[in-house]
Specification:
The chain is α/β, with parallel strands linked by helices. Helices cover about 55% and strands about 10% of the residues. The chain contains 20 helices and 8 strands. Helix 9 links the parallel strand 5 and strand 6. The protein binds guanosine-5'-diphosphate and magnesium ion.
Length: about 450
């Protein structure tokens, strides 16, 4: 998300590099470029104007002495105002109510309600160690209930059955009873959507809201709708009193207008981002970190958290200790490393959060990268354990056998061994440094040339 905006903003702000002070005219010049950038990102006009007038007011208030580095000062102001625009602090779910606590999912058809219900359920189960159940009140869309059941199984959640013979109201009443009986902590209730906001849908979901009296009512909306997303959220909010928004499909949205408009227009915070189709493709929305990402500073904090939750910590620690002791880094370790990278969602998920990610060439094909890891795994599996422990054993005839066994070419086996050697060298170098640095650098190494263009921090 935000690639275009990020590029535009960083280049506009660079205009101030080297300026000796903030004046009405240089501020105006940058502000008018920022305005165009935001409008192109499809941020609502009223939001853009509000934002720019705060930025201008604050920038003009800086005296020369305070604004030692004009460019940095201005970036700081923009960062703070962007953060404010998206909701200031991160608003977690409130899970304190008496169980079963209800979360109601609302939104238009195809926005990602069903997918997000399962993602969110998994998040709550993993992070808060709660007993989570899913139930579906979507009796209109064919197989909507089955879809939720399948996702529920995938996520390892409980599922409360329902049937299209029932009314949504009956389903809600039954689900509530069943959740109590099964000692469920959190019940996520999925609902039907329509193509556009209409009275029937509104009265149905309002009725469900009365029956369920949810603690959280989350509006699920497709980020591709741009500022329209904020307008539809506002319509739902008037009927339902939303507690927050889940912005989906941000992985395919290069503009980001929705993320920037929702809070300002509805007053309701974005709580989560859908970042892909997979069950764990859900990010907690942090306005300040998002502002950093927009300004090309990268979102290292989220990256670290992901590394912490998704990488097998014990294995990572073991690996670090091993390398630290100047023992060896063999192909077994290399295989673990590749496995861990796959868990982190491959390069796609990582790249997006690194500083300067937006400046990467568009040709970066991350699904190709993911396939590359798959293939590397297969080649490594075709080696014997002994060969992985003692890579020097791998002579030309063994290479041929490994290539044949994994359905690859000898050149691919050579390529893998070369990458392993590079990684080994690098592991030795960074072995003593902190965990994150180690992970980040190993990833850079894995990506080979791909990462070459990323400027390191700022
Ligand atoms: N790429 C991507 N696809 C998503 C995301 N969230 C949902 N989808 C896809 O959007 C489609 C509609 O999702 P669904 O949950 O059925 O929407 P619903 O009609 O609101 O229940 C499905 O194909 C999902 O896989 C996301 O964050 N990223
Ligand atoms: Mg659905």
């Amino acid at each position: 998300m935000f690639e275009n905006l990020s590029n535009r903003l960083t280049s506009s702000l660079k205009r101030l590099t080297g300026a000796s002070k903030l004046t009405e005219s240089n501020i105006e010049e940058v502000v008018s470029e920022v305005r165009v950038a935001l409008l192109e990102a499809d941020v609502a006009l009223e939001v853009v104007e509000g934002f720019l007038s705060s930025v201008k007011r604050r920038a003009l208030g800086f005296s020369v002495a305070e604004a030692l580095d004009v460019h940095q000062t201005f970036v700081k102001i923009v960062h703070e105002e962007l953060t404010k625009m998206m909701g200031e602090s991160q608003s977690e779910l409130s899970l304190k109510a008496k169980p079963p606590l209800i979360i109601l999912m609302a939104g238009l058809q195809g926005s990602g309600k069903t997918t997000s219900a399962a993602k969110l359920g998994k998040h709550i189960k993993d992070k808060y160690k709660k007993r989570v159940a899913l139930a579906s009140g979507d009796i209109y869309r064919p197989a909507a209930i089955e879809q939720l059941q399948i996702l529920s199984d995938q996520a390892g959640l409980e599922f409360i059955e329902s049937s299209i013979e029932q009314t949504p109201r009956q389903i809600a009443e039954d689900a509530l009873k069943e959740a109590k009986g099964r000692l469920i902590d959190v019940l996520l209730f999925d609902t039907a959507g329509r193509q556009s906001v209409d009275d029937e849908m509104m009265s149905e979901i309002t009725e469900l809201s009365v029956v369920l009296s949810p603690t959280e009512t989350l509006f699920v909306v497709d980020s591709m709708m741009g500022q329209e997303a904020a307008t539809s959220a506002k319509a739902f909010d008037q009927a339902l009193d939303l507690t927050g928004v889940i912005l989906t499909k941000t992985d395919g949205d290069a503009r980001g207008g929705a993320a920037l408009s929702v809070k300002a227009i509805t007053g309701k915070p974005i709580k989560f981002l859908g970042i892909g189709e997979k069950i764990d493709a859900l990010d907690i929305f942090h306005p300040d970190r998002m502002a950093s990402r927009i300004l090309g500073m990268g979102d290292i904090l989220t990256l670290i958290e992901e590394a912490e939750t998704k990488v097998d910590k014990e294995k990572a620690e073991k690996l670090a200790t091993k390398v630290q002791k100047r023992q060896k880094f063999d192909l077994e370790d290399f295989r673990d490393q590749i496995e861990q990278m796959k868990n982190m969602g491959g390069l796609e998920g990582i790249l997006d959060k690194l500083p300067g990610a937006a400046n990467l060439p568009g040709s970066m094909n991350s699904s190709m990268e993911a396939k590359k890891f798959e293939r590397m795994g297969i080649i490594l599996d075709s080696m014997s354990k002994r060969e992985r422990q003692f890579p020097d054993l791998i002579n030309p005839s063994r290479k041929k056998r490994i290539a044949a066994g994994s359905g690859s070419q000898v050149s691919e086996v050579n390529g893998l061994l070369k990458q392993y050697k590079q990684m080994q060298k690098m592991m030795k170098k960074v072995g003593r440094k902190g965990g994150m640095q180690r992970i980040a650098s190993s990833m850079q190494n894995m990506g080979g040339g791909v990462f070459g263009g990323i400027p390191k921090g700022r």
